[in-house]
């Protein structure tokens, strides 16, 4: 079930809710009250907190030096490492390292 991100209140009661999946719904009790006394509208806004959280997640992803490597094919990553630095590493070994990084990243997100 979707959670409201933004709720328009009338006299403290919900009248209109904008949901996190992009849809909206009206609450009939609030709509009926608004027809009677339209000057008591108010808004409860959770978008600010959601946007701060999304911005922080975006910043973390953009400064993660392993992100691009974890999304690439092991052969392409191996080509990016100079031969003198990778020694006898093969694509399978690079893939094992990338898999380990991916596993650690998933654990830290949870």
Give the amount of beta strand, in percent: 15-25%
- The parts where pLDDT drops under 50 for at least 5 residues are none
Q: Which sheet architecture does the biggest sheet show?
A: 4 strands, antiparallel
Ends apart, CA distance between termini: 22 Å
Gyration radius (Cα, Å) is 25 Å
- Count every beta strand, where a strand is a DSSP E run of 2 or more residues: 4
Report on the architecture of this protein.
The chain has 110 residues and is an alpha+beta fold. The protein folds into 2 domains: 4-50, no CATH class; 64-109. It is built from 6 helices and 4 strands; from the N terminus they run βββαβααααα. The longest helix has 19 residues, at 91-109. The two termini are 22 Å apart. The model has no long low-confidence stretch (mean pLDDT 77).
What is the compact description of this entry?
Strand 2 and strand 3 form a beta hairpin. The protein has helices at residues 28-36, 47-63, 67-71, 74-80, 83-86, 91-109, and strands spanning 4-10, 13-19, 24-26, 41-45.
Summarize this structure as a short list of keywords or feature phrases.
110 residues; alpha+beta; 2 domains; rod-shaped
Question: What's the layout of helices and strands?
Answer:
Blueprint: E1 4-10, E2 13-19, E3 24-26, H1 28-36, E4 41-45, H2 47-63, H3 67-71, H4 74-80, H5 83-86, H6 91-109
Helix pairs in contact: 4-6
